């Protein structure tokens, strides 16, 4: 019985020693893993520091530990309470070699080269797009130019049609006299505006060049405006020089029909306007520099000088 008791005691002691040894091995394995992680971090820090010193950069500053790090470390410490912590031995930490620094730099350069390649691809795509837009813009400009030329040609054709229509209307509705046709327009306009309207219809303001044209135009205006006396613009002016009367085509006027005040006799003497009737207006022209355009009276065909901005009827002439 004593031998049995001694054998059981030895077996129990062996089992206790084995469990204790297994627990110690587990602690050593955990400590070894922590030592390896710490050694890897120290190795990376040393390599970055050496690389920054080689590139003349400021010392590397690692990221700040988050606020919850101490609590996590405290919790881990509570779990590993009672387990001995083994600090890494500096002598066993592998230091970064020049090959490691070169590999790191080459890796960074490779990344930069890849980024530059992507940038070049995008720039090429952008250049192609800009070239396409430029070609489209040139086509639009060409189409706009062609459209503008077509519109100008259409406007010119419309103006030419209006001039042809005006000349035809002037000879059909107005007075045919020699190689000219005269047409009265009952529209109050200044002398310059009347000249423009006649030109748009393919003619010009009336320019009677001789006595026959003057008498024919007088009969036409008197019949059209009787029994009233209206001044009607002619194409005659002295805007270039006082007293130098020119037609609208810049030819000098050689025939005149200025108004002259009739002589008034004594009491009971007959006058053109009846006994004792005063003379109608002074001799013309009398406006000097203030009156540079000529209008014809519709009742007797006499010429009067007026301010060119006054608004009168006007008569146009058209070639047959």
Automatic annotation (TrEMBL):
PANTHER family: C-TYPE LECTIN DOMAIN FAMILY 11 MEMBER A (PTHR22799:SF1), TETRANECTIN-RELATED (PTHR22799). Gene3D superfamilies: Mannose-Binding Protein A, subunit A (3.10.100.10). Residues 1-18 form the signal peptide. GO terms for biological process: ossification; positive regulation of cell population proliferation. It comes from Phascolarctos cinereus. The gene is CLEC11A. This is C-type lectin domain family 11 member A. It is found in: Cytoplasm; Secreted. SUPFAM superfamilies: C-type lectin-like.
């Amino acid at each position: 019985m004593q031998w049995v008791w001694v054998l059981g005691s030895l077996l129990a002691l062996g089992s206790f020693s084995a469990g204790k040894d297994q627990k110690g091995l587990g602690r050593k394995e955990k400590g070894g893993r922590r030592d390896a992680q710490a050694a890897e971090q120290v190795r990376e820090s040393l390599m970055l520091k050496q690389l920054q010193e080689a590139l003349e950069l400021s010392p590397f500053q690692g990221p700040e530990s988050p606020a919850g790090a101490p609590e996590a470390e405290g919790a881990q410490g509570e779990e590993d309470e009672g387990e001995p912590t083994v600090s890494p031995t500096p002598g066993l930490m592998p230091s970064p070699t020049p090959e490691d620094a070169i590999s790191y730099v080459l890796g960074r350069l490779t990344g930069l080269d890849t980024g530059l390649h992507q940038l070049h691809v995008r720039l090429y795509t952008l250049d192609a797009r800009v070239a396409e837009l430029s070609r489209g813009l040139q086509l639009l400009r060409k189409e706009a130019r062609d459209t503008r030329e077509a519109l100008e040609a259409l406007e010119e054709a419309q103006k030419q049609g209006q001039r042809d229509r005006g000349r035809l209307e002037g000879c059909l509705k107005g007075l045919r006299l020699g190689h000219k046709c005269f047409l009265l327009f009952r529209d109050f306009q200044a002398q310059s505006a009347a000249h423009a309207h006649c030109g748009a219809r393919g003619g010009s303001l009336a320019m009677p060049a001789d006595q026959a044209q003057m008498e024919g135009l007088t009969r036409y205006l008197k019949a059209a405006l009787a029994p009233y006396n209206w001044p009607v613009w002619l194409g005659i002016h002295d805007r270039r020089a006082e007293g130098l009367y020119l037609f609208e085509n810049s030819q000098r006027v050689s025939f005149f029909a200025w108004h002259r005040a009739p002589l008034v006799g004594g009491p009971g003497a007959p006058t053109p306007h009846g006994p004792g009737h005063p003379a109608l207006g002074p001799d013309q022209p009398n406006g000097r520099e203030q009156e540079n355009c000529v209008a014809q009276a519709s009742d007797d065909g006499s010429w009067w000088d007026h301010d060119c901005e006054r608004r009168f009827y006007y008569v146009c002439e058209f070639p047959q």
